[in-house]
Write a structure and sequence with these properties.
elongated, mainly beta, 81 residues, two-stranded antiparallel ribbon
Length: 81
């Protein structure tokens, strides 16, 4: 099961800051190459993602400026098929 949590804060009527943390998981498996009749395996993968940003509307909505930063803690499991 994956999860996601986030917060946002209105800095001004036209500016918002936000942050999120979420997880992700992809199960391992295998690929079969039909042209060579060979198979390759891949390991399970997990992700812990952090994101923070700001969104702004300026000049009565004529200009929108957004910025976002993120960090992904991506890992491949030691399990193998």
């Amino acid at each position: 099961m994956d999860w996601k949590a986030g917060v946002e804060f209105d800095l001004a009527p036209t500016s918002m800051a936000y942050a999120t943390v979420q997880t992700g998981f992809i199960d391992g498996g295998f690929n079969i190459d039909a042209s060579t009749s060979s198979a390759s395996t891949f390991k399970p993968e997990t992700l812990l993602a952090y994101t923070a940003g700001i969104k702004n509307r300026l000049f009565d909505g004529a200009l929108q400026l957004n910025a976002e930063a993120f960090y992904y803690d991506y890992k491949t499991s030691s399990l193998c098929f």
